[in-house]
Amino acid sequence: MRELLISGGRLIDGTGVAPRPADVLLRGDEIVAVGDPGTVVHAPDATHIDAAGKIVMPGLIDAHLHCTFDDVQSNDELFFHREPTMAALTTAQNLQKLLRAGVTSFMDPDTAFGIGPAVRDAITYGVIEGPRMKTGYQALFTAVGGTAGRLIPDSGQVGYAQVVNSVDDVIMWTRRHIKYGADWIKIHATGTIPGHQGELLVWSADELKASCDAAHELGVPVTAHCRSDASTLAAVRAGCDLILHASFLSPDTVQAMVDHGTAVCPTFTFLANLADYGPIVGAGVGQADLFRGEIRATAAMMRVAYDAGVPILCGSESGFALTPYGHWHGREMEVFVNELGLSPLEAITCGTRNGAIAMRMEGEIGTIEVGRKADVLVVDGDPSTDIRILNDKSRFAHVISRGIPVDLDRPWPQHERIPGSKVSNWADEILTYDLARQPE
Ligand SMILES: [Zn+2]
User: Fold this and answer.
1) Ligand 1 centroid vs 148 CA: distance in angstroms?
2) How far is the CA of 364 from the centre of ligand 1 (A)?
């Protein structure tokens, strides 16, 4: 099997220890040696990457993104202007962007039309190019809906949503999603209701537990979107394995997470982009302080959870116009440094080793150690002193996925606007008589 020697660099191995000079030898999809410079014995025909002056580190693991959404601009577009075959084709193109941005593994909790398992298998068996993938099918919603509110029908399915209306329904659809190939079951535990502030818990304790029990009986974990403290506590008690967002945590809920061994992927990136850059693209204008308030409140308790030993993962929520594929996969680590007060090395461990939890590949990926899979980055610059480097694609000298270097020289994959796939308004404004008669 072909060997690849990466020599002369300094190693950030993903376990949290300080960078050190080391050579790394890959054979096929395995790290077979990590040693002091010049000491690693390799085959005479090994390919050689000179990492002098650079950092060698594990590939990034994005524990929460939506690979089938194609950088969507609205719920209307996502639920009513998309088509399954085109969703699969655009996904295949977008996956290349993830690799180009250093993401060698990702978890997608819910997929448009439930195409996730087919996409995963297409990657695994070499039909299309992409990072390692673990996936849900669709997200389970109650009839109250989720973040799309009234766009979600009273029953049936639309886009990435499957509506469940009773405990029996919950059990049936949990089992069906597993039959269809889901690695994870996704519960949309909170939703928006007109006239109410924030997101409310829209599942009963019995419904949450029914899904967790049915999934766990078949060896499948459960993840839940929770944007309130009550929803996180209910999901943790029901047995959910991974909480997405976990906004506004309370000390009791942190303790429950410790007691249950629950992991969390706060996914600040979307909010952080909205707060810092939203107005550039006409989003969240005038609401930056609101978004920053949520980030700050959640981050303070997330730090308490981190210190209590709750595993914290990095997710970018890529797939939306505010978080396009290939652009923001290092942003979460930057937020962890700035808002949680983690050191860059601690943040990197969240974005590498801890991500293996979402991939259900703990001990297989996420660190540079002998016996691990061969997902490796060679980075120009030191992210242990400036974490922002990991969000700058131009700094990735090499991205190695499954032991094979990704071609970083090809043109950036992109497509033009696909007719029918975007929402188009008849007009930006309402044509009143006064507006029409306004002097130039
Ligand atoms: Zn999400």
Assistant:
1) 12
2) 25
- Region 244-264: mean pLDDT is 97
Q: What mean pLDDT comes out for the span 416-439?
A: 86
Q: What is the pLDDT of residues 335-355, one digit of tens each?
A: 999 999 999 999 999 999 999
pTM, entire model: 0.96
Residue holding tokens 């980075």?
A: 379
C-beta of residue 243 within 8 angstroms of C-beta of residue 293:
no
The residue written with tokens 């009550």 in the block is 230
- Distance from the alpha carbon of residue 436 to the mean position of ligand 1, in angstroms: 42
H-assigned helices in 132-267: 167-179, 205-217, 229-238, 251-260
**Cα 149 to ligand 1 centre (Å):** 15
Q: How far away, in angstroms, is 109 Cα from ligand 1 center?
A: 7
CB atoms closer than 10 angstroms to residue 328:
24
Pairing of strands 3-7, 47-50: parallel
Contacts of 309 by beta carbon, 8 Å cutoff, 6+ apart: 258
Q: What's the pLDDT score for residue 197?
A: 86
Of all residues in the chain, what percent carry a pLDDT higher than 70?
A: 100
Separation CA 244–CA 226 (nearest Å): 6
Please write the tens of the pLDDT for every residue from 351-379. 999 999 999 999 999 999 999 999 999 99
Residue 320: φ, ψ to 5°: -110, 160
In sequence order, the β-bridge partners of residue 354 are none
The backbone torsions φ and ψ at residue 176, rounded to the nearest 5 degrees and listed phi first, read -65, -45
Q: H-helix or E-strand containing 186?
A: strand 185-188
How many Å lie between the centroid of ligand 1 and the Cα of residue 192? 15
Q: In the prediction, which pLDDT does 440 show? A: 66
Q: Which helix (H) or strand (E) holds 434?
A: helix 433-437
pLDDT at 103: 98
Answer left, alpha or beta for residue 31, where phi above 0 means left and psi between -120 and 50 means alpha.
beta
| Neighbour tally for 359: CB within 10 Å | 21
Give the pLDDT confidence score for residue 435 in this predicted structure. Answer: 86
Torsion angle defined by CA atoms of residues 123, 124, 130 and 133, in that order, rounded to the nearest 10 degrees = 110
The 3-state DSSP class for residue 334 equals: helix
Q: Determine the average pLDDT of the residues in 293-311.
A: 96
